[in-house]
Amino acid sequence: MTTVLLVVLVVSVVAAYLTWIAGRVDRLHARCDAAGAALDAALVRRAAAAERLATLTDVLTDDVAEEVDDAAASALESGPDDPEREVAENRLSRAIAAIPMDPSDPWLDELRTCNGRVRMARQFYNDAVRDARTLRLKPVPRYLRLAGRRELPEYFEIDDRVL
């Protein structure tokens, strides 16, 4: 009788542990999805602000305005699942970095704000990806396939220097 109770107790503890790990994996993936959506929104806002700056102001020279406008358009065209998105966003970052920054220019405030939000959203997303990858690559979740058929999340690396 005690052997049966001991086996039931051990099975219950193992089942509870596996359920907890599976729930944690699921929560971390949900966190990655939410952070990815926030990052996507921040990137779209930054590209729209850069495009607006390039077309509506006399702050930029024609060459710089054209480069910013082209880079913003390609960044807006690339979607969250596009493998070339990082390339388009890096091109936009380089175009933004080429803008001569005048601290007193009100047109640049929105772009500065958007760039800061992109930096923060990318940091939150990469932190969520790091946590999910760390847990998913441990032996128990990996061998028991507790993440199901979900793909391992990938980091999003772009140049998001401070303006």
Work out the helix count. 5
In the predicted model, the low-confidence regions spanning at least 5 consecutive residues are none
Q: What is the percent of helical residues? A: over 70%
How many discrete structural domains? 1
Briefly, what CATH class? Mainly Alpha
The separation of the N and C termini measures 71 Å
Q: How many beta-strand runs?
A: 0
Beta-strand content bin:
under 5%
Under CATH, the topology is which?
de novo design (two linked rop proteins)
Largest sheet entry: none
Protein structure class: mainly alpha
Oligomer: single chain
Write down the overall geometry.
rod-shaped
If classified by CATH, what would the architecture be? Up-down Bundle
Radius of gyration computed on alpha carbons: 23 Å
Mean pLDDT: 90
Give your account of this protein's structure.
Helix 1 runs antiparallel to helix 4 and helix 2 (62-77) runs antiparallel to helix 3 (85-97). The protein has a single domain (22-143), classed as de novo design (two linked rop proteins), CATH 1.20.1440. The protein is rod-shaped, with a radius of gyration of 23 Å. It has helices at 2-56, 62-77, 85-97, 107-136, 139-143. It is an all-alpha fold and 163 residues long. It is 73% helix and 0% strand. The protein starts with a helix and ends in a 20-residue tail after the last helix.
